[in-house]
């Protein structure tokens, strides 16, 4: 589903060049749950941002469902992203002025889905996440774990093929972190492909494959056995 080859990203500012990714090749099949690990500054966020079509590489190819992402027009790329990719961030990135229900509804508003369908989907998804009783609350009234559950609800409401998660438990305590990881596992078991950046080996143990980066290069790929 996702195929990148010889992907490089070089940040240039004044006289300084930073090679964030160097000739990275990676294939991710539908239904996989992949962790991307490696020390700070090794290029994890850069890779995730490129996979999410939020950033462009300096060199290399990226195909998503057999479409060459960076040969598409900007508008086509945005449409491909909105249809297929959900994001979960370390800092939740909820909109404080909107209620839980309104936050979760947003991707469907962007996709111009009819209001009746939107309300129905929001109710279903909040029910599934155990957050229905908080629908009319604002993010600031929720715990970190609850906010991340809302963020996951928002990421999955439009039924994306892929969820990209950047340190999804980074701001959570162990108990709430584990809840979020269990939620992601469950979504993966229902067929959603997940790519997650993490520092935590514990979180990575929920995934099925660990890709390790070092200085912008892939240094190992290990499949995990689950019994
Ligand atoms: P990680 O997520 O693994 O911590 P990043 O992808 O954020 O790594 O960064 C990889 C390298 O690229 C680092 O050296 C970082 O300082 C650099 N970098 C990231 N974003 C930018 C940017 N916008 N401008 C310049 N350098 C950047
Ligand atoms: P994390 O390690 O939690 O992913 P980072 O510090 O790597 O966070 O990066 C946070 C954001 O800042 C990223 O979007 C990244 O692109 C940007 N960034 C990282 N390093 C630099 C840099 N040297 N110059 C400009 N932007 C950067």
Low-confidence stretches: none
Reading off the top of the CATH hierarchy, the class is best stated as Alpha Beta
For this structure, what is the CATH homologous superfamily?
Answer: P-loop containing nucleotide triphosphate hydrolases
Spatial order of the strands in the main sheet? 6-7-8-3-9-10
What are the distinct ligands in this entry?
Answer: adenosine-5'-diphosphate
* General shape: globular
Number of domains: 1
Here the CATH topology equals: Rossmann fold
* Count of DSSP strands: 10
Family: Belongs to the ABC transporter superfamily. Macrolide exporter (TC 3.A.1.122) family.
GO molecular function, one term: ATP binding
Keywords: ATP-binding, Nucleotide-binding, Transport
InterPro entries: AAA+_ATPase, ABC_transporter-like_ATP-bd, ABC_transporter-like_CS, ABC_transpr_LolD-like, MacB-like_ATP-bd, P-loop_NTPase
TL;DR of this structure?
Keywords: ATP-binding, Nucleotide-binding, Transport. The protein is an alpha/beta fold and 227 residues long. It has helices spanning 44-51, 74-84, 100-110, 115-128, 144-156, 174-189, 201-204; strands at 2-13, 16-28, 33-37, 59-64, 67-68, 85-89, 162-166, 193-197, 209-214, 217-223.
Description:
By secondary structure, the protein is an alpha/beta fold. The protein has a single domain (2-219), classed as 3-Layer(aba) Sandwich (Rossmann fold). The protein is 34% helix and 29% strand. The chain contains seven helices and ten strands. A six-stranded mixed β-sheet has the order 6-7-8-3-9-10, with helices on both faces. The protein has a four-stranded antiparallel β-sheet with strand order 2-1-4-5, with helices on one face. Helix 3 (100-110) runs parallel beside helix 5 (144-156). The longest helix is centred in the C-terminal third of the chain and has 16 residues, at 174-189. It is globular. The mean pLDDT is 93. The site of one adenosine-5'-diphosphate has 12 residues, from strand 1, strand 2 and helix 1.
